[in-house]
Design a protein that fits this description.
The chain has helices spanning about 20-25, 65-75, 90-100, 110-120; strands at about 10-15, 35, 50-55, 75-85, 125-130, 135-140. The protein has about 140 residues and is of the alpha/beta class. Strand 3 (about 50-55), helix 2 and strand 4 form a beta-alpha-beta unit.
Length: about 140
């Protein structure tokens, strides 16, 4: 993201895990990147702030997906977009988590109808939901 924005945009890397943020910091620190440890369902960020929120390989792990999406909608500016991305299909992600068991057993990506419903309830308009062999992508926009 730093390279894609040529360092001209503020980037916030948010994770509930301090260890994951530590790894992100070790990938190279840039002055335009802020690291925030927080739960996505209770972000300590101002509303109407972001043009884009990317949930990369994390959405299934949100215990309360509706609450997380409502928080994301809150921090997005009008016209801002949300991208939920994975490098595998919904089925593959869900089967992997089920096979691992334990705390991730029920961490799943909902089907298209449920995803559209969750996005709509949160105030986001679904634009596109692609569930393909090597990727899952859901894009929504605020207002």
């Amino acid at each position: 993201l730093h390279e894609a924005t040529k360092g001209r945009s503020k980037i916030v890397s948010l994770d509930i895990s301090e260890e994951m943020l530590k790894q992100a910091r070790n990938n190279g620190h840039h002055s335009n990147i802020e690291y925030v440890q927080a739960d996505v369902a209770a972000m300590p960020l101002l509303g109407d702030t972001f043009d884009l929120v990317i949930c990369y390989s994390c959405f299934p792990h949100f215990p309360d997906k509706a609450k997380a999406l409502a928080e994301i909608a809150k921090v997005l500016r009008k016209g801002g977009r949300l991208a939920i991305c994975h490098t595998a299909s919904r089925r593959e992600i869900n089967e992997l988590h089920h096979s691992i068991g334990g705390v991730v057993k029920h961490d799943t990506i909902p089907d298209k109808a449920k995803m559209r419903e969750l996005l709509g309830i949160s105030g986001l308009k679904p634009i596109e939901i692609r569930d393909e062999q090597q990727r899952y992508l859901a894009i929504a926009c605020k207002g």
